[in-house]
Known about the structure:
Blueprint: H1 12-19, H2 23-28, E1 36-37, E2 43-44, H3 47-61, H4 66-74, H5 82-94, E3 101-103, H6 105-112, H7 118-126, E4 130-133, E5 136-139, H8 141-151, H9 157-186, H10 192-226
Antiparallel strand pairs: 1-2, 3-5, 4-5
Amino acid sequence: MTTDTGEPALTVDELAARAGVTVRFYSARGLLPPPEIGPRRVGRYSREHLARLALIEELQRRGMTLAAIERHLTQLPPGLSAHDLAIHRAVVASWAPAATEEVGREELERRAGRALGEEDLDRLAALGVVERADGRLRLDPGLLRLGVELLDVPLAHETILAARTVLLEHSRAAAHELSALLREAVGERESVAAVKSLSAHMQPLVVQALLTTFQRSLKEELREWLKEP
């Protein structure tokens, strides 16, 4: 079965199995939009629901309470696609030090929600999502959802890697400028704990600002390129 957008639909149990969380709990808290109601009044969930659950999980991993996550989600731009949410989650994950974990091929495919061929693994490795060494796989969980989304992007492999390089360079430049502002704001005498606390409070604001401004800037660039009114 598919949703109105033509995407594969999931039941609540299928969504829970795919996401590895209790869907009804987050739905009751208002953190998850209601499903599309299909035949026999069965709720059907889309890729956007799965991506939103992954974002909620990442925010919890960063130490945010459910109340803070609820406020954060309500401040996101409306109508975000699964890809938009995956980008948002990747930005959130990048705020913390990189943490990888060793996984088997079956576990990687379960988390990805799809079968992965050798070409897919090579592409994920080139994107920095997985590292292949001695027959083992080391996964960066924060980048997995975005990496899987990029597997279906109809662009040459080299183009995607070049785009990744551009984004990394500009994000590092922005991080450097932001770090300088934070150092100036807290002063040299503040404790490490105070700096970490300020960084944690700034994180949701920075993530939202990055996502929103990038979307608007990209739309403006495309409008200029296509000469749309």
